[in-house]
Amino acid sequence: MVPMCQRITSKPASPMIPNSSYEPHVRARRPGGRPDEKPKYRVLVHRRFLMYYNELADRVGLKQAQQFWDHVSQDPGNPDPIASTCFLRGRSGRPKGPGWSRTIHYEVSSSARIDYQYHDAYTTEPDSDPHPVVAILTINYSSH
Questions:
Q1: Rounded to the nearest 5°, which phi and psi values hold at 109?
Q2: What are the φ/ψ torsions at residue 112 (nearest 5 degrees)?
Q3: I need a surface site. Which of 25, 35, 56, 67 has the fewest CB within 10 A?
Q4: What's the CA dihedral at 22, 25, 30, 33 to 10 degrees?
């Protein structure tokens, strides 16, 4: 019988970061440049959605793209006063791990929707500092 190989890394198993040196999430920059006030939450997007995230301002307009980023970077747990938000139901709405919120469905426009979760004290390693983080899970540009 051949023994199984295991990949050994310094990173712990995490629902948002797999147990490998591969880091799937990258920082999602604010469309149009720096915000007026420092963000409370780090906004991350999965690498496979980075191309779609970079198209956000072109597809929905710079003002709406900035409104989305400003909302999730400052107060992702509360409803946006302008855009429509709701919690997803069922399996897709479940938190991705301990400490994560339920999935929030944010309608940027009639043709663009973004699902995200947030964590108030996320760490990638047991000894690292906790940071508030928003993870963009999906970006959808099709109509309902």
A1: -150, -175
A2: -140, 130
A3: 35
A4: 0
Both tokens of 112, joined, read 């663009």
Q: What is the pLDDT of residues 76-90, one digit of tens each?
A: 999 988 899 999 999
- Find the domain containing 121 and state its range: 25-140
The two beta strands, 42-46 and 131-140, are parallel
Rounded to whole angstroms, how far apart are CA atoms 24 and 110?
28
CATH code of the domain containing 107: 3.30.2310.20
Measured distance CA(115)–CA(126) in Å, rounded:
27
> What total number of domains does the chain contain?
1
Tokens standing for residue 47: 């690498």
Q: Where are the alpha helices (DSSP H) in the chain?
A: 50-54, 56-60, 62-74
Partnered with residue 83 across adjacent β-strands are none
